[in-house]
Amino acid sequence: MPDTTTNVFSHLRTKLANAVLDLRFGALLRGGKETSHPQLGAYATNNSSYSVIDTLFRDRVKPSDVLVDVGCGKGRVINAWLAAGYANRMIGVELDTGIAAKTRERLRRYPTVSILSGDIIANFPSRGTLFYLFNPFNAAMMSSFKETLKDCISSRSRGEATVIYYNCRHIEVFADPACEIEYGKLEHPYAVIHVFAGRARGPDE
Fold first, then answer.
1. Residue 75: other Cβ atoms inside 10 A
2. What pLDDT, on the 0 to 100 scale, is given for residue 43?
């Protein structure tokens, strides 16, 4: 019974903390939304908790990074980046044009933030260096995302990028010589994937 009570209070504290930060950035972001594009391999839109986002990105963001939230939904991850004080360029890409429009309107006063509407492959942020994904789509789309990212970074002088993949249901897609993976678990399993263009990583690198 004490453990159950502790869990209930912990859950309530998390919900309250989420609500307070949501409101700081203009709207209470309640719940998820089923995708209107299942034929494109998309999954439901969900909100990650602020504490999880903070943990996943802590000590990983460099001043030069361009941050990209793939399937940004209502924009809580971008809220969290702003709350953390990151001055980086931030890009959200959302397939559902209605959700994207509302998120764009809510965050319009932040000049470092852009919200793109549409498919991630057709709207790939070519300058992105640090990507966040919360299980946004199926394995076939994840494979397309990975290959597009590899092609994109292959043209850079520093051909690498990092993907933080939370609730990583299709991590097998990144079983690729160009990818180096770290695993962890918070509320869901996650993977931090370092992607290197044009070469495999050797054991001593």
1. 29
2. 78
